[in-house]
Amino acid sequence: MNKTLFPQHGANMGQPVPRYEGRAKVTGEARYPSDVRLPRTAYAYLHISRIGRGTVQAFDLAAASAVPGVIDILTHETIGDQIKQTPAIYQGGYASDSFRPLGSAEIAYWGQPVAVVIAETYEAAREAAHRIGVTYGPHSPPAADMDSPDAVAQALVPMAIDVGDFDAAYAAAPIKIDARYSTPAQHQNPMELFATQCMWEGGRLVVHEPSQYVNSVKFGLAEQLGIDPERIRVISTYVGGAFGAKGFLTQRTALVAIAARRIGRPVKLVATREQGFTVSGYRAETRQHVQLAAEQDGRLIALKHEGWELTSRADTVAMGAVSMTTRLYACANIVGRVNAVSADRSTPGFMRAPGEMPYGFALETALDELSSKLDMDPVELRRVNDTRTEPVGGLPYTSRSLMRCFDEAAAAFGWQDRTRQPGSMRDGDWLVGWGCASAFYPTQAGNSAARVRLTADGRVHVSSAGHELGQGMYTMMAQVAAEELGVPIERVTVSLGDSDLPPAVVSGGSAATASVAPAIMAACDAIRRRLGVGNSPPAGVRAAMEASGMGVIEEFAETRAHGLPLESVRDMYRGKALPTGGVSLPDRVQFALGAQFVEVRVHALTHEIRVSRAVGAFAAGRIINPRTAHGQLIGGMIWGISSALHEHTEVDGRNASYINANLADYLLPVNADIVDIQAIMVPEEDKLVNRAGVKGVGEIGVVGVAAAVSNAVFHATGRRLRDLPIRIEHVM
Amino acid sequence: MTTGLSTDRRRFLIGSAVTGTIPFMPRDAASQVPEPSRSPGSYPSVDLTLHVNGQEHRVEVDPRTTLLDALRDHIGLTGVKKGCDHGQCGACTVLVEGRRELSCLTLAVSVQQREVTTIEGLAASDGGLHPMQQAFIDHDAFQCGYCTPGQILSAIGCVREGHASTPADIRESMSGNICRCAAYPNIVVAIMQARERMEG
C-alpha cells in the first residue's frame, strides 16, 4: 500500500494545496444543479421511444392525463415548430446532435424523447409517463450496429493521410504485422444524472444544469427558443462528473424551458439512469485495421491505420485519431484512413480520451505484436522509433519526454525482472503477465476571459465561466491568482460555472487549465500594471496596493490561444470557444506523453482476470497542483482498466436498444477491482504550448492502459486479444 | 462488479422496517416542526414524521416516495444524492439507526420512527468535521464530489461494522459505492486514517 498518495511540490509544479471546495463537498453543502430548490417546482418525466426507427402514429394520453397531479403533457403535437433547429457542434452549432426535440413524429433512434409529463410530484409524473400509450407506425428493424445490412459506411476523405509509398514499402519489408481490432460502445455514466431545472422570471430564463459549457447551453437554447441570449442565464457551479457527456446542449433543456413557460412555474427534470444512455452522446464502437512493417532492428518502415466508427444517420461524427497515431513514431511511409458508419442510433459524442483510447489501443497492441515477432523488448521498440518531429508534416514537437516516461515507469514497475516468454511468470495458479504501452494526448487550448479583483485588505476574487467537474477548477483558479498576486490562497475566492461571468472555453479536451490559467494571468498582469509593479515579484503587489490608496482594482482580460484566428475571440462571446492544438497547428505539434505498465493475473482454473498493479508516468508540462493532477491521472488509469476489462454498452440487434442501460449491468470498476495504482509525474517544462506551460492531465491517464492490459494478457497466457473488453470467456 | 442488494436482502430491509420492533428514541421536545408540505398524487398522501439528524420533520408525501426523495425534495437535505434510483451505485447511502442503507430503496413511510443520519448531520454544531470528512479532505478522496456523501456515510458504517481493518477489507466492504472519478485508492487510505481517529 503506497501511502504517499500524491506527490509533493517538485520541479515545475505548484503546491499540492487541498481542494478549494473540499469542505463543501464533504459536508453536503456543495449545491449541484439538481440540488437547487425553486419555489413551486413541478416535476418532469420523459417518455422515450421503444422502437429504433419509424414514426409515432398516435398517442393515447387519457390514462396519463387522468393521473391526479398531472399538469401538462408535451409531445410533438404540442411542441410542433416551437423549438427551432440549432445545428450540432460538428456543423458549427451548439447542440450535441441535430435532432429537433419533439420536432416531428419521426423516430430516429431507440430512447428518443417522444413525450414529457409535467406533474405536481415526481411520483405522479413518473406514473403518468408510464401510462402514456404510443402507437408506432409500421416499421422495419433498425440498423443497430456496423454489421447491419442497412448500415452505410462512408470514407471521410479530408481525414486521409498519405506519406511516402506505403504499399511498396510494406510489400518489401522483412517483418510485418497485419491485424484487426475492435472497441465497443461505451457510456460516460457520470454519477450525477442529467438534470435540468428551468425558471422564468419575467422575460428572463434561469437554467440550472450540470454542464461543461454553460455558454453552449445559453446561446444554443436562445437560438432554439428564438429569444435574445441575454435573457438566458445558465448556472452550473458544481458538476457531478461529466467526462464529455455534459459538453454541449442536449434536447432536454428546451423541453424543460418550454414546459416551465407553459405552466408559469419552475420545472425540474432528472432523467433516469437508463434514459441517460440516450440523453447525450457516447463513445461509439470502432473497428480498426493496423498494418506495420519494420526492419530487423525494429525501426518502422511502413504504418497504416484505418478506423471505422459508428455514427447516427443525422450526424457524421468521427473522432478519427489516426491523425495522432500516425504522428507518434518515426516512419517514412504512412497511410491513415477514417470511415463513418451510419446506423439508426443516437448521435455519438465525446467520452474521456474520445479517439485516443480506441485508436491508441489498436496501435499500441500492434506494436506489442511487432516486438513479439522481433523478439525485442517493447520498451526498446518505442525507443528506436522515438522522434523529435512528427513524420506526417515534419513538424517539431514542442517538447517530448516519451522515453523519459518509459524509463521512470519501467524502473518503478521493476520491468527489468520481466522474462520475455509468454506464460513464463506463473505464480501458483495465477498466470502473471506484464505489459506496457505509450500514452498520448494532444495539448490543446481555447480562448478564455477572466476577471480578477484585488481589494485593499489583500483579498482577491477571480471569476470566469469555467466549470468544476472534479478536476479541480476552483482550486486551480485560486492558486494561479494567489501565485500571480502574491497573496495566501486562503485570501482568494472564486466564481465559476455561470454564464453571467466572463466567458471561458468548453471544459473539455483536457484544455480547461491551459485555457483559463493564461486569462487569469493576463488579468493579474493588468492589476500589476495599474499598480506600477509590472514585472517585480508578486510580493510587491500587496505593498503597492496599500501605498496606492485605492480601495479596489478590478481587471478583465481575454486571451487567444495559439492557432486560433483573430475573429475567434468574438466567437467566445457567443458560446463558441472550442480548443485547438495537438496536430491541428500549422507550425508544430503538441502532445502530453506517458508510459503505462500493468501487471495482469489470469487464474489458470477460473480464468478470472485481475489487474494487480499499474504504474503510469506522464510528462504534461507544468503541473499547477500535483494533488488534483494526481487524482486525474489515477482516475484516468482506472478508466483505462475499465475500458480493458469492464465497460461495454450492449446493443440489441432487434431494436437498437441498449440492453444494459443501468449501473448493475453496465460494468464499472468498484473499489475491490482496484488494487495498486501509481502515477508518476515526470517533470517537464514547455514554454511554447501556452503561457502557463500547461499541457493538461484530464485524459492522458486513460490512454494506452487497454493496450498495456491486452499486452499483459498475451504475456500471461500467450493469447493475443484484439477486441475490448477482455473478459473471462476470451481467455478460456 | 457492482454489489447492489439482492432481492432477498431488499425484501428483508423493507419488511423489517415496516414490521420490525422499533426502538423508541427520545426527541428534543423543543425541536422545530415545520408546516407539512402538501402533495397531490394518485394515491392518498400520507402524513409522516421523519427523524433526521436529531430533528423532527413532518411531511405529507405520496406513499411511493422514497426516503431519498423525501430528504431531498420535501425536507431540503440535498446532500444525499440520486445516482441511479435502483440501489446500484450507493450515492444515496444514509445511516438508519447507525446502519448504512440505500435511501433510494427505502420508502419514506418505512423509517418513521427510526433515526436517519445524512451527511448534513455529521459535522459538530461548532462546524468541526467528523474524522471521516476530514480524512476525505486530507487524502483527496474525491473529485467531483457527487458520490462523496454516500462514500463518507458508507465508510462510517464500514468502520463501525469492523470491516476496516485492512485495505483489502475496506475495498470489499466499500464496493457498493461507485466512484466514477475513481478516487478509490485515496478513499481506502482516508478510511484507514479515520478509523484510527474514530477508534482512538
Automatic annotation (TrEMBL), chain A:
UniProt keywords, alphabetically: Molybdenum, Oxidoreductase
Membrane-crossing residue ranges in chain numbering: none
Superkingdom to which the source organism belongs: Bacteria
UniProt key word Oxidoreductase: yes
Keyword Oxidoreductase: yes
Domain Aldehyde oxidase/xanthine dehydrogenase a/b hammerhead: start-end pairs: 27-140
Pfam family, one: MoCoBD_2
SUPFAM superfamilies membership: CO dehydrogenase molybdoprotein N-domain-like, Molybdenum cofactor-binding domain
Position of the signal peptide: none
An MF annotation (GO) of this entry: iron ion binding
Protein name in the entry: Xanthine dehydrogenase
Biological source species: Skermanella aerolata
